[in-house]
Amino acid sequence: MILGMPALVEYTSLRQLVELCMKLNLSFIELNMNLPYNFIQNLPPGELKKITKDTNIKFTMHMPDGADLGSFYNSVRKGYIELFSDTLGWAKEAGVDLLNLHILEGAKMTMPDRKIYVYEQYSEEFTDNFIDSIKALSIKAQKNNIILAIENSSNFDKRYIQDTLDQALKYPNIKLTWDTGHDAVSSFKDQKYLLENTEHIAHMHLHDAKGNNDHQALFDGGLDIKGLLKFAQSTNIKVLIEVKTEEALIKSINRLTRGRG
Known about the structure:
Structural class: alpha/beta
Helix content: 40-55%
Strand content: 15-25%
Strand order of the largest sheet: 1-2-3-4-7-8-9-12
CATH superfamily of the domain at 3-153 and 160-177 and 230-242: Divalent-metal-dependent TIM barrel enzymes
CATH class of the domain at 3-153 and 160-177 and 230-242: Alpha Beta
């Protein structure tokens, strides 16, 4: 099974990530464009290719959490499409084969008795915008042999999100990421859509959860970690151990190695 680690906010350099990855005998690092030291302009593609050649460590990339491909503002949406396009070009040169992204549920208005999601109320416009973005990016992703994997973020139970995903998954190289912790804190509402679309799942973010707190070390919460790993192995997908600190990552890998659980 191919296991990897995320870029850590407590670190400030690629070298630190690579050293920990080697120490833990992991296969890949998910870089993260929320962190300035992981911005593509700060990571020369040749440096990543050399690391892969020297250590056999490979890389994926997590796009910025706020990158809204369904934005109602044309200028904002075009800016994010350009960022994705630039990242796809960089990824091809760097040997990165997967970009992880979110589908955003959008702004919500809190009423006296409920919350109204603006994208849901204007769902046709939202879906059209998101699909226009995906259509353009899918062409370049296919050309560069890179997967764009859309991650559940406790919103895959929403009908307007599902309808948009149904259309997006028809395009080449558009897949899904199963984030286990996000699924858990949504009371597993994401899981129904994911399990109905297992053929599209290309990636897993594995972390444990305690109640509403996810990104916990493996076996610190209530998730069936072994069952999730069995699913990943049966579908031959990469698994990112997505805990957010060096301490939690080391603890998680040590527990996996000992076969805890």
